[in-house]
Structures are given as C-alpha cells and as structure tokens.
From TrEMBL:
It is an enzyme of class 5 (isomerase). InterPro entries: DExx_box_DNA_helicase_dom_sf (IPR013986), DNA_helicase_UvrD-like_C (IPR014017), DNA_helicase_UvrD/REP (IPR000212), P-loop_NTPase (IPR027417), UvrD-like_ATP-bd (IPR014016). PANTHER family: ATP-DEPENDENT DNA HELICASE SRS2 (PTHR11070:SF2), UVRD / RECB / PCRA DNA HELICASE FAMILY MEMBER (PTHR11070). This is DNA 3'-5' helicase.
Amino acid sequence: MKELIRELNQQQREAVLYFDSPLLILAGAGSGKTRVITYKIAYMIEELGFEPERILAVTFTNKAANEMKERLEGLLKREVPVWVMTFHSFCVRLLRAHSVRLGYKPNFVIFDSDDKKRLIKEIIKDLNLDPDLYSPSTIASVISNVKNGTYSLDSMNLYYENIGQIFELYNKRLKESNALDFDDLLICGRDLLAQEDLKRRYSDYFRYVLIDEYQDTNRIQYEIALSLTKEKGNICVVGDEDQCIYTWRGANIENILSFERDFPNAKVIKLEKNYRCSGTILKAANAVIANNRKRKGKTLFTENPDGEPIRLFAAESDVEESQFISSTIKQFLKKGVKPSDIAVFYRTNAQSRILEDALRKEGIAYQIVGGVKFYERKEIKDVIAYLRVALFDSDVVSLLRILNVPKRGLGDAAEKKLKEILKVEKGNLKALEKLAESVSSARQRKAVEDLIEIIRAIREKIPTLPPYDLIKFITTVSGYKEYLQKEYREDWESRYENIEELGNTIQDFAEREKLEGEELYVEFLSTITLSSDQDEMEEGEKVTLMTVHASKGLEFPVVFIAGLEEGIFPHVRSLDSADGVEEERRLFYVAVTRAKKLLSLSYAKRRRFFGTYKSSQKSRFLDEIPSHLIKEVKKKERSGQPALQKTSSTSDKKPKIVFHKKFGKGVVKRVEGSGDNAKVTAFFANYGEKTVIMKFLKVLA
DNA sequence: GTGGTCAATGTTTTT
DNA sequence: CATTGACCAC
C-alpha cells in the first residue's frame, strides 16, 4: 500500500491521505480521480482499519460502481464488501428496509420512463386534456423537474394550466400501484433519512462517504449525502464543474459551491495534471472550455507529448462523413490498432444508424452502447409486464399493457370498462373478475377468464420453476410466441431470441445473487430498471459507438466525433439560452477529453433529417480550437480511394449474387425498389428464400 | 367493438 | 423512416 501511494503525484497523494475535514476534490479530466478514490478507500481499510462494509462510495452508473469494486479488490487481493453503488440503488436499498414508513409495501416496483409515459398518457386521457398541449414526454420531464426541485409547480402552471391536477393524479396513481419513479426513489431516500432515528442509525453506521461525479448530483442527492455526514463531516466528493452535463436532469453545479458553504472547514484539492490526453488534445480541450463563463477555473496541463494533430474532415453529406469514418477506421485496423481502442461519438442517438450502415459495409465489428436499451425493447417489456402483473397485483400500467397483447379481442371499450372498475376495485385480479362479468359478449368473457388463468398460472410457477423456464412458460401460456410469429413475420426469430436472452440473464442473476422465487424477480426488476447504457457495454474486439453522454468516464486511444454542426452539436434545443450553449460546450469538452492519442472531428454540409436533406453549418466549437492544432483532411488524400461511389453498394444494374452476414451467399430472384432500401429476395443455400433490405447485403456479382 | 390498413407526424441527452 | 393515430370493413 505504502509503495502504491508513492507512485501518486503530490496532489493525488494529499487527496488520498487527507481525513482531517470534509474534502472536495476538483479533478480535471484524465487526472486520475478514479485512482485516487480507489486508493483512498484501500488506504482507509488497510492502514486506518475501517470496516469495508461501513464505507459508502456513490458512483454515477452501476458500471462505474462495478469497476471501482473490481479495482479495489484487485488492489487488496480479496473481496471487499464496501457499499459501492449509485444514489438510486442506495435509495432502493434503504426503501426495501423501510418503505412501510412512507406507505409503500417493500416489494415496490420502479417505473421506468416508458411506464411513466404510459401512465401520464392515461391521465391526460382521463382528464380530457388536449394531448397536443400535453404531450406525455413533455409532461414527464416537467413532473421530473418539479419533483427534483428545478422548477416549482406554480411556475409550471403558467405554461401548463392543468399541471397541478396531472401532478397530483400521477402521484396518486403511482402510489396506488405501489410504484416509484426515478425521482421518487431519491425523494423517498431523502425523506427516510430525514427521520431522526434513521438518520442517526445510518450516519452512525457509515464511517465515511465518498461521492464520485459530484458535479452531476442534484439537490436531493446532495441532501441525502448531507444527512449522512453533516455532523461528522466524514465526506469526500470528487467532481469537475467543466464536466457537468446533466443539468437538464436536475444536476446542479451549485452543489460544488454549497459544499463549501455547508462544510465551512472543507479542504479543497485540485487535480490539474492530466495523464490521459496528448498535449494537442488537451490544448484543444482547454481552449474550448475557456469560452465558458460559469466555471471555477482550472487549467489542466500534461507532460504527455503533443502527438498527432487533430484531424478535421468536412464532408459534403452525412453519408460521406460516415464513409470517411469507416474507411479511416479500416486503415487504423490494418495498421494494427485494436477495434476496442476506437470509439465513435455523436450527439443524438438518431445519428448512429448511418454510422452503423457504413461500418457494416466495411465489415467492421462494432457495438452500440445505448440507443434502445435491451430492456426497453417491446418484446422484452411485454414479457416483463406479464411477470410484473403476476408479481404485483397493484401494477395497473403493466396490466393495461398486456390486456390485449397478444390480441384477445379486448380492445378500447374493454379497456375503458376495466379502468372504470379499477376506480373502485383495487387489485388487478379482482378487477379482471369483475370485468369478466360486465363484458358484453361470451367471447370476451372467455378472453378475460383466460387472461386471469394465465396470470394465476404464472404466479403459481414463480416459486418453483427455474427462471429460464419461467420466461419460456410465460411466452407459451400467454400465446406470445405465436403473436410474435404472426405480427413480425420477418424478424420474429430475433425477437424471440431476445426473450430467451432475458431468461438466461435472469438465470445468471439468480445464481450470482443466490436468490430465488418472488424475491429474485423483484430484485431483478429493480436492477434492470436502474441499469444504465454503459452497463450493457461488452468487452471484446469491437469498435464502440455511443452518444457523448454515454462516454462520460470512459477513455479511448482513438476517438471520432461526428456531426459537429450547428443545430446538432450544439443541439438546436440548447441555442436559445447561454446556459444551454455552455452545457453543450461542456459536453464537447467531455467528448474531446475522452481521447488519449488521436482525435478526429467531422461535420457534414448536408444532412438528411426525416427524409429530406437540410444544409448545415459547421459547429462553433470547431472555431474555438486553435487552428494550428488541427490538420484538415482533404478528400483526395483520403484512403487513396477514388472519389466516393455515389450510391454505395447498389449499382444501377441488378445484382445477381449477394452476400449476407448471417445467411451467406444467395442467388437473387427479385429486386423491388432501388438504392439501399431495395427489397431483395434471394435464395440462400442453408436458409432458403429470404427477403432482405439491400443495405444488409454485399453485391458479389 | 375489434382489428387491419393507411396516413400523418415527430428526434436531445438518461438514472 | 418508423412509430403512432385515425379510419373503415368485418
């Protein structure tokens, strides 16, 4: 341990060894803050005799938590039961023990944003409000902002006349469903710790609390931390105001200022030496962020060599940009760069598709982090809804979701009746029984009774069947498998595979956590709704594609940032306020500082939006980088290839032989349409006749 | 009353 | 371009 600490620079060492008062570490990008935190924890355990289970370390994502734990265990060469988790997970843990105090049963459900929107949609309908004025996603974010204290309900009342009513009803329905949304988790956690005995108990229990990514905590999270440590001042927070990119979710840079106010004797240590980036990259990052006015001010320096200039490519179109990126990646791979050392970042998820197409055409293995998350896929959510209905008799949102999926002849009218019944009859099964009696036809009656049977059957199997079999059972007993086959003729198999994957995941989870039966599923469900994009990242030899937000906390030797255009990055929705642009700039700063050795920036002069091309201008952020750091990549120098093939793989002539990643070689029988989206029907030796979109095919002849 | 088909319509970022 | 809503035939 002592030798390890000797490796640290002076500031890092001081941060590890300091325990005299509350500690605020302002850690610039790539300054080794994760190292500092892990060493600090290790030092506490090894040298100061702290009991690991009485240390709480809060991270931003579960992935970061796992990594920190792994590093710690690598350092100490044994299992270390430190509480490493996100604020949300921490609150869930508190709530499982004490939820009754706040009027929730301990087996509560967590509503994800999809559940939340569904519920809001119901409420808007029930209140007869105009869905154009009250779009579920807008209302969802308003509710969130009110809950986490960004806006007051009254101030929102100006824009949304009925918001008070919606807000109240939303919370009422949630509570009746024994459900909490993301914001509730934090609020309830805070409220529990506001109770004198619990505050006493937990603040006595935890001997030290550390918070990573402090700049992205919101007020409520801060209050949680405060109630655990206010008295003893046994707290260390690590953050960088220049990397605060979640203000729209209630993150508050003010927390950094509040910290010094609430803990007047706080010690501040700055980590300004960057170990990650090349000199050139760091200079660019510093120059960009200097344009922000709202910052405490810190200047990073590095001893790393300047390295290669930053590349800039001005593409004529979005297609050309993605071709540039994929062909450059291909060159790198040829030169021996590992795919896992390369990442492509973009501002919005919608940009990923075109990049994917280009990489696929070059035959480059890639993974996308984020986008539509695994657990948000329709088929997964449907199956989980069955599970939830079987587990939680109060989960109305899930019941409504499966009422007519698969189609069983219970449409709008039946749904309305059910909702009427639910107003007086609490409990899904009871309500369904009543529905069976009040429904119009014998056919519908049978349908409802069948549904009740399905739910009962699942419920019965929960304690006995292994998880994989239970999931399989759900898909058969509910007729969901046939539904997929009928509804998704083309790709039902991959969807069904996803469901099987879900079964496997639960099985693994059960073995890892040594849980079974109801407890297993309740635990699993809360874990997956709190899982972040990064949690899904795979190890392996693949190029990584993700949004800039998802890249937070990561690093790659080679980084591409695509779509550096006004309106995209900075995003249009941020342009009307100075604060908005500053947040975009911090976001760009985060993106740039992920790169260790090589950074490639690009933009497109024309970009396709919904179907039509729109011309765009290069991002202001590009002009903020000193030009001597940049080398513009000219088209003709690119990859030594002749100018671009105008329409990629599709030629005017009809293809005869094609190649598909999974199906292999195929003989073309028919082509409908033209270009990338042409439908090609071909005969494949091992798979028979298949119809595939052109862009998934390579033309061989 | 339900389910299939057609048209319109909408894209920030996420625990 | 892909999902969601409105409309009409069963």
